[in-house]
Design brief:
The complex is a heterodimer. By secondary structure, chain A is mainly alpha-helical. Chain A is 53% helix and 12% strand. The chains are: A mainly alpha, B alpha+beta. Chain A: InterPro entries: MksE.
Chain lengths: 182, 1225
């Protein structure tokens, strides 16, 4: 079986740490990866590059087994931020389920009317205007591939959000000894 | 050249910085002037004559507009005077807000415009014309109209006289070329420019393909296609189904919720009512119970009191018996029997004592008279005997009396005892009988109860309720079955109707396609014929006539058919010009129609035929769409009805499932209640039977008791009789014994008296015989008297004891039996009373238990209702769910609910939780579903999360309608139509465009041949200028070509109504390929940023110039050829050649008696000789050069007219002619 002709495009997206989600503008690429034996073929092909092609629910990404500690630390740092961002979005009336479309202005309005959200958004962004704050946060998620910006004001939740959810669900909060035995 | 038409003169009146200047330019003209003197202004004005376009004059956007710069005053005029042989006319251009033209049939006369050195206003000028009877045209208001007039293309014949040339539809190339030469004379000559000129010369603007429009249509198409593709994606289809399932589930949950809410409302009201009713009942029952308890306690007290008295009596009897026992023992200890016996002997002892004392006194009284003595003794003895007999009789009588008394007592006692026994028996028998009667009554009751139990219908209410439910269900089942069958039939008939519509449409479609195909084939054939004609026309008789015989249409065209005209083997030769005869015969052909057609007519016919084909295609696509629309609208109605029916069927199925569950439950409940009823019946029957048996046994026992009592009575009577007999016998025996004893005593005494009498007789006889006295006897008497006295004393001493004994015997000892009987009687009475009370207690306990059970049952019900109400108040009323359902709960009428309030609340909460869980899933599914479509997708799958839950339900309803009405078919049809139309439009436009290819090549070859003449034979400056065309490199064009090829390969296979059907693999591949092609095209268009595809994009043009030793090779643009002068020269040659070719192409061959100007500024660097050659080169082609020079040099001598630009004292530019008519023409 031949490699799909989009393989270089797929590689260039994934190797930058991005996701390919089925419901995004790169949905066609996902369809190609998902098509018949392509996933296994590509996985085997990319294995030689040091990347492992991983598949989640309707999304794919690259993983690396050996990564320098510095990068890992950065990733962890980023994740702690994403967790806060997810917490923010999950506190909204409309939860961040796959396919949900958020309008920045609408989120900003909700933040104005909801003190809890307001506090969260203030903790997440230092921008002055509420709209800019929201745009920054949504933009960060879009940058990471969990959201996709459809137009200036609209962001859509990608299938890759499942990855974030899966990672968050793996986190176990352990109580320290002191708290256990006060 | 006498009739040559040329722009003869240009006059400025108040134009720019010129007050007045008149410049004759009817030949090669040179303007000399330093910079900023107005050379370009004048040249631009000349250009404006040809182009009549204020925008294409090379005026920078930062500069004033043409109108503002040139026409600063209302009396500003540019006048173009045109020479037509000896005649002159002029065009006046003036401004009244915008620019206007007027053609004036007269040469320019200054006085008409200027009076007293003052330019007149246009009205005044017209007045002047009128005064001088100068004809002038109407005001020409548009540049286009002006150009049409000037280039002889205006349909209005009255303007024909003002035409500079007789141009065809492509005359636009001439002003374009003149403008381009003026604008780009100093820059690079690009192949693009030449291509553009070629294109303009052979086509109109309509042949260009507007990529913006196509791109927009493509974008619309691909977006729509993508929407439909997304719609058909497997996961979306599945999710769509899921959403519809979710929606239906949610609807069902809502229905259930409403039903539960109503039920709860009913249950609450019922509970409120029951709470009061049951509360009252409980209160009544409790009061009744308390009364029953009190009554029983009182009765218990009475019973205790009654028993207490009897017990006291028994106690008294017991103490009496105890005292009797004690006293009897005391008496026995004191030998009361001996004492009594001794006391019984007292009278005898007293008699004995009296007798002995008398005897003693007699014996001691003296021995006097022995006879007397003995007589006395005999008398005494007789007296004693009499006394003894008297005593004995008395004793006998006493004994007899005692016997009779005892006998009477015995009889009395016996009688009493017997009576008591009988009484006791009668009482007991009565009691037992009463008990027996009671038991028999109870047995009868039990039998009745048994019958009643046998006939009783247990849990009748519940069972009849369930029966009612089951009957309702059965009734509903039948109704539903018939409704279902009707609906299924309806669905079937709708399906058939749908199939029928589809089939009919398919047949219609096939017929239409066939007809369309045939028509198209006919038209294609027609095109083929025209193409064949056009391909051979140059080498046929037709071509010969075109080239050599002007107006042949009017003569030969009327007598030759097309077969002759397009015959290549005729070898025509012109023998004699101007002879209008057919083989020597003159014919009047004025009434004969022309057979042949011009090339344009053939082309037009071909285009028209193509348009017909396009129209057929269009009609086909429209037919398809219309058919799809019609089919969809019909099927939508059917689909809607079917969906409604299916919904109803689903609802009925759901109801059936629910009813089946209910039926099962009711059936189970029904059997359970029946089982419970039978169980209870059995239990009660067992109880009744047991009770019956018990009663039977008890009755038998009572009967036995009665019998036993009878026999006991008989026995007791017998025993009493026996006792009486025994006692009587004993009494008789004692009496007999006493009587015997008395008799014996009497006999003994009588014997003793006889003895004594005998002895006395003997003694008397002895005394008398002896007369002596014996003292032993006295002594013996004395001792006898003493012992009797002692015995009597003892008797006297124990007399009180005996009396006491006798009293006690009379009061106690003799009544012991009586006491015992009384005690037994009393004890029996207590027992009987206790038994009686025990029965009462049993009845009380039973009643109390029954009441307590009733109270418990009622309390349990009350508790249930109260708990339910409390539960509702504490756990439901405060919830948002209640507020939501309040309108249902509060409106519901009171009704009993099996599930109870708590159960209903729990069910409602569970339903609500389930609803929310399902709704969350539903929302996620919709978000994911809608998220897969573009935000502004044409299927309108959009959801606004801010609009709340109803928005999601609206979406689901919309989706359901969409599916039911199969609305996707409309989209598919529309997309298929736009797909077909796009391909058709592209193909037809491409065809129209590529048709020009032959003419392009022809034109290029013409140009090349013209270039070959520009080799400056004299100087041999340019060895050659070559031109060649290559295939286009335009990527968009290539894609367009591929689409066209595809269209030709698949004339009828694409553009089917459904682009998405997977049934026909070959068709599906073709569809896929066509969509890919369109998608590729769209991508390329957006990547390449072209706005349109024009004729010039069909080919690439390459130049090759050899100048001296310089050979440029095949190049795309001519940048620098040799030195600046050479370069300019070469470019000028190319431009002039181009202009020449364009003029040839754009004007009628028979009317080429005109000259145009070619304006090339700044030609100072061209050497005089080359300039001379250039002028000559231009002149050969009827082109006059207008050049600009910064300084005076010898160059100007080569021109017909040379002008110098100066400024006067007022700063006005003055154009001064330096030389008129060249010395060296």
């Amino acid at each position: 079986m031949n490699l799909p002709k989009q393989t270089p495009e797929i590689f260039s997206i994934l190797s930058r740490g991005n996701f390919i989600s089925s419901n995004g503008s790169r949905g066609k690429l996902y369809d190609i990866i998902d098509h018949e034996g392509n996933y296994e073929l590509l996985k085997e092909y990319f294995r030689h590059t040091g990347y492992t092609l991983e598949r989640g629910h309707n999304y794919v990404y690259f993983s690396q087994s050996d990564e320098p500690n510095l990068i890992l630390e950065k990733k962890l740092e980023a994740f702690s931020y994403y967790i806060d961002v997810m917490d923010f979005f999950s506190s909204m009336d409309t939860k961040p389920t796959v396919g949900t479309r958020y309008r920045v202005t609408q989120i900003a309005e909700e933040c104005f009317s909801n003190e809890r959200l307001k506090q969260k958004v203030f903790a997440l962004s230092r921008k002055e205007k509420m709209v800019d704050k929201v745009a920054e946060i949504a933009g960060d998620l879009a940058q990471a591939g969990f959201f996709e910006q459809e137009d200036e004001d609209t962001f859509k939740v990608m299938d890759a959000i499942h990855y974030l959810e899966a990672v968050i669900s793996l986190i176990t909060i352990e109580q320290d000894g002191e708290q256990k035995n006060p | 050249m006498e009739n040559r038409r040329i722009l003869n003169r240009i006059i400025f009146i108040n134009i720019a910085n010129t007050d007045y200047s008149s410049v004759e330019i009817a030949g090669n003209t040179c303007f000399v002037g330093t910079n900023n003197m107005g050379k370009t202004t004048l040249q631009r004005a000349i250009l404006f004559f040809y182009s009549a376009n204020t925008r294409g004059l090379g005026i920078a956007s930062s500069q004033k507009t043409f109108e503002d710069y040139y026409f600063q005053y209302p009396n500003s005029y540019i006048i173009y005077e045109i020479a037509a042989g000896d005649e002159r006319f002029h065009v006046m251009v003036y401004r009244n807000n915008k620019l206007f033209y007027r053609f004036v049939e007269n040469e320019f006369v200054q006085e008409h415009y200027i009076t007293d050195k003052e330019a007149l206003l246009p009205k005044a000028v017209l007045t002047k014309f009128n005064e001088h009877r100068v004809n002038y045209s109407d005001q020409i208001e548009t540049f286009e109209r002006y150009r049409n007039i000037i280039y002889g293309a205006d349909p209005d014949k009255k303007y024909k006289k003002f035409a500079l040339m007789k141009g065809n539809a492509n005359y636009h190339n001439i002003p374009l070329a003149i403008t381009s030469i003026f604008l780009s004379s100093e820059s690079v000559i690009r192949a693009e420019f030449v291509k553009e000129c070629i294109a303009n010369s052979i086509s109109s603007k309509h042949t260009t393909i507007e990529l913006k429009t196509i791109e927009r249509q493509l974008r619309q198409f691909t977006e729509r296609y993508h929407d439909i593709e997304t719609f058909f994606r497997k996961e979306n289809t599945q999710r769509g189904d899921l959403i519809r399932d979710n929606f239906s589930h949610i609807q069902q949950l809502k229905v259930k919720q409403r039903a539960l809410a109503k039920e709860l409302g009913g249950a609450l009201k019922y509970a409120e009512l029951q709470k009061d009713t049951i509360g009252t009942q409980v209160h009544e029952r409790k009061e009744h119970l308390a009364k029953v308890e009190n009554d029983f306690r009182e009765r218990e007290l009475v019973h205790r009191d009654e028993n207490k008295e009897v017990i006291q009596e028994i106690g008294a009897l017991k103490s009496k018996l105890k005292e009797a026992d004690k006293k009897q023992k005391e008496y026995e200890d004191r030998n009361i029997a001996d004492l009594l016996r001794e006391a019984a002997e007292k009278p005898q002892l007293l008699l004995e004592l009296q007798a002995r004392e008398h005897e003693y006194a007699t014996l001691t009284a003296g021995f006097s008279d022995i006879e007397q003595q003995f007589k006395t003794l005999f008398d005494a003895l007789e007296n004693e005997k009499k006394e003894f007999e008297h005593v004995l009789n008395k004793t006998g009588l006493q004994l007899d009396k005692k016997f009779n008394d005892d006998k009477n007592d015995l009889i009395e006692s016996h009688r009493k005892e017997e009576t008591a026994l009988k009484e006791r028996h009668a009482a007991e028998a009565d009691r037992v009988r009463e008990l027996k009667t009671q038991k028999e009554l109870e047995r009868k009751d039990a039998s009745y109860r048994e019958k009643e139990i046998q006939q009783r219908r247990y849990f009748d209410h519940e069972i009849s309720l369930l029966k009612g439910h089951l009957e309702d269900l059965a009734k509903r089942k039948i109704e539903r079955a018939s409704a279902l069958s009707v609906k299924h039939n309806n669905v079937d008939s709708l399906r058939k109707e749908g199939e029928h519509i589809r089939e009919r449409n398919r047949i219609t479609s096939e017929q239409y396609i066939e007809k369309n195909k045939q028509e198209a084939a006919v038209l294609e054939e027609k095109i083929k014929v025209i193409d064949e004609k056009l391909s051979v026309h140059q080498h046929a008789f037709f071509g010969y006539l075109q080239d050599n015989y002007p107006d042949w249409y009017e003569t030969i065209g009327k007598v030759c058919n097309e077969e002759i005209l397009f015959n290549k083997d005729l070898n025509p030769k012109l023998l004699k010009k101007g002879v209008d005869a057919l083989y020597g015969i003159q014919l009047d052909l004025s009434q004969v129609k022309v057979y042949s057609k011009t090339l344009e007519e053939y082309e037009q016919e071909r285009s028209a035929t193509r348009e017909q084909i396009a129209a057929l295609n269009q009609a086909f696509l429209e037919f398809r769409e219309a058919q799809a629309h019609e089919e969809q609208s019909k099927l939508a109605g059917i689909g809607k009805k079917t969906a409604q029916l299916k919904n109803e069927i689903a609802q009925l199925d759901y109801e059936a499932a629910q009813d089946a569950t209910k039926e099962k439950q009711y059936d189970l409940d029904f059997h359970e209640w029946k089982r419970k009823g039978e169980e209870q019946r059995e239990q009660e029957l067992v109880e009744v039977y047991t009770h019956h048996d018990t009663l039977k046994k008890e009755i038998a026992t009572l009967q036995q008791q009665l019998e036993e009592l009878g026999s006991a009575l008989a026995e007791n009577i017998k025993r009493v009789q026996q006792d009486y007999n025994d006692r009587y016998v004993k009494l008789k025996r004692t009496f007999d014994k006493e009587a015997e004893k008395i008799k014996e005593q009497r006999d003994e005494k009588l014997e003793e008296f006889e003895d004594r009498k005998g002895k006395l007789q003997k003694e008397k006889s002895a005394v008398l015989k002896k007369k002596g006295i014996d003292d032993t006897r006295i002594k013996k008497l004395k001792a006898n008297i003493d012992s009797i006295r002692k015995a009597l004393e003892n008797l006297e001493k124990n007399g009180e004891l005996i009396n006491d004994y006798r009293k006690d015997k009379r009061e106690l000892f003799d009544r012991i039996d009586e006491f015992k009987r009384d005690r037994e009687k009393l004890e029996e009475r207590i027992k009987q009373s206790d038994r009686h009370f025990e029965q009462e207690r049993e009845a009380y306990e039973k009643r109390r238990k029954q009441l307590q059970e009733e109270v418990r049952d009622l309390s349990e019900s009350l508790r249930k209702y109260t708990e339910g109400l409390n539960h509702f108040d504490n756990h439901f009323r405060d919830r948002a769910l209640y507020d939501r359902l309040r309108y249902l709960i509060e409106e519901a009428p009171a009704e009993y609910a099996d599930a109870g309030i708590v159960g209903l609340c729990s069910q409602l909460l569970a339903n609500d939780t389930e609803f929310h869980t399902q709704f969350d899933k539903f929302r996620s599914n919709i978000a994911e579903y809608a998220g897969r479509f573009r935000p502004d997708n044409h299927l309108n799958f959009k959801v606004n999360p801010a609009a709340g839950d109803l928005e999601y339900e609206r979406f689901a309803a919309y989706l359901e309608d969409f599916h039911n009405e199969n609305k996707i078919q409309i989209s598919i049809a529309e997309v298929a139509k736009s797909h077909g139309m796009l391909i058709d439009a592209i193909a037809s436009k491409m065809k129209a465009l590529t048709e020009h290819k032959g003419r392009i090549n022809k034109m290029i070859s013409k140009m090349e041949s013209d270039f070959s003449k520009a080799s400056f034979e004299g100087s041999r400056l340019i060895e050659y200028i070559k031109l060649k065309s290559e295939d286009s490199e335009n990527k968009v064009l290539r894609k367009l070509q591929r689409i066209t090829e595809f269209r030709e390969q698949n004339p009828f296979l694409y553009g089917e109504t459904n682009l998405f059907s997977q049934g026909n693999k070959a068709k599906s591949e073709i569809d896929k390929r066509s969509v890919e092609l369109l998608s590729d095209l769209q991508k390329t268009i957006s990547e390449e940023h072209y706005e349109e595809i024009r004729v010039q994009d069909l080919f690439e043009l390459r130049f090759r110039i050899k100048e001296g030793r310089n050979d440029t090779g095949w190049i795309e643009k001519i940048d620098k050829v040799g030195s600046t002068g050479t370069d300019m020269l070469v470019k000028a040659v190319i431009y002039i050649t181009l202009l020449n070719v364009f003029i040839k192409e754009s004007t009628e061959k028979t009317a080429r008696n005109f000259s145009v100007h070619c304006i090339i500024d700044e030609v100072g660097q061209i050497s005089a000789s080359y300039l001379k050659e250039l002028i000559a080169f231009a002149e050969e082609r009827n082109i006059c050069l207008i050049n600009g020079l910064p300084n005076e040099s010898k160059l100007e001598t080569h021109y017909n007219y040379t002008y110098k630009f100066r400024k006067d004292a007022n700063g006005y530019v003055k154009v001064v002619p330096l030389l008129t008519m060249s010395i060296e023409p």
